[in-house]
Write a structure and sequence with these properties.
Blueprint (H helix, E strand, L loop, with lengths): L1 H43 L3 H49 L2 H4 L2 H15 L2 H13 L5 H14 L2 H7 L6 H32 L1 H12 L14 H11 L5 H8 L16 H7 L4 H30 L2 H12 L10 H16 L2 H14 L4 H14 L1 H9 L6 H22 L3 H20 L2 H24 L1 H27 L6 H4 L6 H4 L2 H17 L4 H7 L21 H9 L6
Helix pairs in contact: 1-2, 1-14, 2-4, 2-10, 2-11, 2-13, 4-6, 4-21, 5-6, 5-11, 5-18, 5-19, 6-8, 6-19, 7-8, 7-16, 8-16, 8-17, 8-19, 8-20, 9-19, 15-17, 16-17, 18-19, 21-22
């Protein structure tokens, strides 16, 4: 028995040592690549000054520029969040104060989605819900469904970010898939867990038992700020918003008509507001500025990363990020990625910032979609820390209920991970859906805008309206719709896997009209509209080209490097260099 223990101990030590040696070898390979890069740059230039300049630019200036652009990118997300609060923050607070609406689970879910889209932060909307529960305006059980909606609404940011890579079809395909995998996981989790929570209230009972079992004391209003310490100085020069106003409107402490979101002080948009503009007008201007800043930062970052991530360095980074742990630790690779995602999100205190920063890397092929998935799941866990910290800052008399709703957010995400990650065949579902969306947007670029508008605005508003009229009306419309969608998905899977078992009419969709199984008719209509716009306004020519769909042959652009007429020589070479990391 002791010999077996000794052998197992030796085996474990061997695997740990091999993992450590792999990391040491990785560092050595990076160092060797650096030396070779310096030597190669030295061969290219004859003068010593040229050698030094090349090394300084490639190994010092470019990384510093990438870090600076990343900082400005994070600041632009903060400014965009402030802009959305100015545009719709008061409305979000007013809606969250409607107690009768929130008691309806479906209404609560849709309000959570819309409110989070308006404030552009699940951390903010979760903190508002925690404040409402702490004030006694809303019970914990109906607040759980708002938290579920907030989880869905937060994924709109990285989906917007992916649009900046629409210039290259292959990059856009990967970037959009990397962004929407967050959406797919959140939607699938809600579809499964919402009915379970409505019938069993398992989240409520589990978190209630935890709160009662542990006598947790509040922090007395302590506030933890990590990355915001770095971004606040820049943001405060541009805009300063009272973050407590939306919460006070939701709790009924302030009237939305009289409330002012802009603080007094010396900052850029204060002077613009003093010129006589309303807060919404200021928010609109700030939104344009922040989106412009975000696009410029992302485009420059992608170009710099393109120039840096090539050759041996690119191969080493790709293999390191996308490789698995050795030996029996292979199965812990995903868990490690989840922990990393949770840790980084806790540091930046925003899942939107983390996933938005990862999206361009997925587009470039540095991070594979299969690795992006567990990182995204970890960010969902990390973002719950903000709500827990907000709950711990509540007064002692309000601590139990506010902490319980914050823990509901945590356990909802844990439940989703347990449902959609451990089993390989379940893990493939959100990845497959994200890949399908990525391939569709590569072929029809306008579909990305359509997806954003429908999934985050029209669908929540439609479901919200139907649930207001009658829950039976919603069931009468929703259940047949879901059954049809499920039937189509099952038939599509069988057409790919077991085509022979289907009747001849169902083996393909060709028997149906084109508009029922293809986006080509809509694409042709949009192309004609863009051609008319281009003829009427020559300045719109570039826009019509960039939004145009695939080539006239209508072939799906599954792999851009096989279609040189759609890509430049440089893009073709770059696509070939990262062929192994394609979605």
């Amino acid at each position: 028995m002791s010999n077996r223990k000794m052998l197992s101990g030796i085996q474990t030590t061997w695997y740990v040592s091999s993992a450590f040696l792999q990391m040491v070898g990785l560092i050595g390979r990076v160092r060797q690549s650096f030396v070779r890069g310096v030597q190669e740059t030295g061969k290219a230039d004859l003068t010593t000054r040229g050698k030094v300049r090349r090394v300084l630019v490639e190994w010092l200036l470019k990384p510093l520029c990438i870090l600076a652009l990343l900082y400005l990118f994070i600041c632009s997300l903060d400014l965009m969040s402030s802009a959305f609060r100015l545009l719709g923050g008061k409305e979000a607070g007013r809606v969250l104060s409607e107690n009768e609406l929130l008691n309806n689970p479906i209404c609560g879910l849709m309000i959570g989605i819309l409110a989070t889209v308006l404030v552009q932060s699940s951390s903010t909307s979760t903190s508002i819900v925690v404040s409402i529960v702490a004030a006694g305006i809303l019970e914990v059980q109906p607040a759980i469904f708002i938290i579920m909606g907030a989880n869905i609404g937060t994924s709109v940011t990285n989906t917007i970010v992916s649009l900046t890579q629409s210039g290259n079809r292959n990059e856009f395909r990967r970037a959009f898939a990397g962004a929407t995998i967050h959406d797919m996981f959140n939607w699938l989790s809600v579809i499964v867990l919402l009915p379970i929570e409505v019938t069993s209230h398992y989240l409520y009972h589990v978190t209630n038992a935890i709160v009662e079992a542990f006598n947790i004391q509040g922090t007395g209003g302590a506030k933890v700020e990590l990355l915001k310490v770095l971004t606040k100085p820049f943001s405060k020069l541009v805009i300063s918003i009272d973050s407590k106003v939306v919460s006070k409107i939701a709790t009924g402490e302030l009237n939305a008509t009289d409330a002012k979101l802009l603080k007094k002080g010396n900052y850029l948009f204060r002077y613009i507001a003093d010129a006589g503009l309303s807060e919404r007008a200021v928010g609109g201007i700030l939104l344009v500025v922040s989106l412009t800043m975000l696009c410029i930062c992302l485009v420059l970052m992608v170009k710099l990363l393109h120039s840096c991530l090539k050759g041996r360095i690119a191969n080493i980074i790709q293999k390191t990020i996308n490789s698995n742990l050795p030996g029996p630790f292979f199965y812990l690779t995903g868990l490690l990625a989840i922990v990393v995602g949770a840790g980084v999100t806790f540091i930046v205190q925003s899942s939107s910032v983390f996933t938005s920063a990862m999206t361009p890397l997925v587009g470039l092929g540095v991070i594979r979609l299969e690795r992006m998935y567990p990182l995204t799941l970890g960010s969902n866990i990390g973002t719950t820390a903000t709500g827990i910290l907000a709950a711990l800052a509540s007064a002692d008399g309000k601590l139990d209920s506010s902490l319980q709703i914050a823990l509901c957010h945590l356990f909802f995400n844990i439940s989703g991970i347990l449902l959609w990650y451990p089993l390989p065949f379940m893990r493939k579902v959100p990845i497959f859906l994200a890949k399908t969306l990525g391939n569709t947007t590569a072929k029809y670029r306008w579909f990305a805008i359509f997806y954003l508008v429908v999934m985050f605005f029209l669908l929540p508003l439609l479901v919200f309206g139907l649930s207001l009229v009658s829950i039976w009306l919603l069931a009468g419309v929703g259940i047949p719709f879901l059954l049809i969608v499920a039937f189509i998905i099952i038939i599509n899977v069988l057409q790919r896997k077991k085509k022979s078992i289907l009747p001849k009419k169902l083996q393909t969709w060709d028997s149906l009209p084109d508009w029922m199984h293809s986006l080509k008719p809509i694409d042709k209509m949009i192309t004609k509209i863009l051609e008319i716009v281009r003829k009427c306004c020559p300045c719109k020519k570039k826009a019509s080209v960039s939004l145009n769909s695939s080539s006239s042959s209508g072939r799906p652009l599954m792999v851009a490097y096989n279609e040189p007429h759609n890509t430049t020589k440089t893009e073709t070479v770059q696509a070939l260099s990262i062929k192994s990391t394609l979605v």
